[in-house]
Amino acid sequence: MNKGKLLVFSAPSGSGKTTIVRHLLAQPELNLEFSISAATREPRGQEIDGKDYYFMSIDDFKKHIKAEDFIEWEEVYRDNFYGTLKSEVERIWAQGKNVIFDIDVAGGLRIKKKFPDETLAVFVKPPSVDELKRRLKERSTESDDKINMRIAKAHVELATAPQFDVIIKNYDLDVAKQEAYELVKEFIKK
Ligand code: 5GP
């Protein structure tokens, strides 16, 4: 199979990486397809199974771990498992496309390690942890408890930024989108 590129976008939850990833997906010349992760949490808002995530039970997720179906997986939050299925990358590469990932920091670095030549690992940095908290509250899709859990994790995640190939500072969303576009455009040429 012809290998495409792997564009990893990782960041603390609320940094704006999902918005950036959506923006890149809307640019046909980048030839990108979103890697749909498996996840054990409940769908939020308008999320659709098989489009945003492959939602599954913890039992089913564990069966996939046992069968070694994942390229990487993480218990991102307690009892909330997320993972990238091998079949997902194969599906996208078979279409002759590049894969774009919106995944957590540990998973992103693992993909980079497994596919060093094909991967561009990008860390999206929020202006500050306070701003992150404000954005998560504004989104108001989760309880305060869950928001606090995400903030606690953000501190740990921010410390891993130097291990990524590039850091995009998301202080101004339009600037960050443009920067991401240029980076991806350049990388997929290689
Ligand atoms: P959310 O619940 O907000 O959709 O995602 C929570 C976190 O899990 C985010 O940081 C998201 O990027 C990450 N995530 C989503 N899919 C995967 C995956 O396949 N693997 C890993 N390691 N993290 C993921």
From TrEMBL:
EC class: transferase
Keywords recorded for this protein, A-Z: ATP-binding, Cytoplasm, Kinase, Nucleotide-binding, Transferase
Binding site for ATP: 11-18
EC numbers: 2.7.4.8
Pfam families attached to this UniProt entry: Guanylate_kin
InterPro entries (alphabetical): GK/Ca_channel_bsu, Guanylate_kin-like_dom, Guanylate_kinase, P-loop_NTPase
Reaction(s) this enzyme catalyzes, per UniProt: GMP + ATP = GDP + ADP
Residue stretches in coiled coil: none
Residue ranges occupied by any Guanylate kinase-like domain in the UniProt entry: 4-185
Subcellular location: Cytoplasm
Domain of life: Bacteria
PROSITE patterns: GUANYLATE_KINASE_2 (PS50052)
Molecular functions per Gene Ontology: GMP kinase activity
HAMAP family in alphabetical order: Guanylate_kinase
Family: Belongs to the guanylate kinase family.
Main function: Essential for recycling GMP and indirectly, cGMP.
Protein name: Guanylate kinase
Lineage: Bacteria, Pseudomonadati, Bacteroidota, Flavobacteriia, Flavobacteriales
Gene: gmk
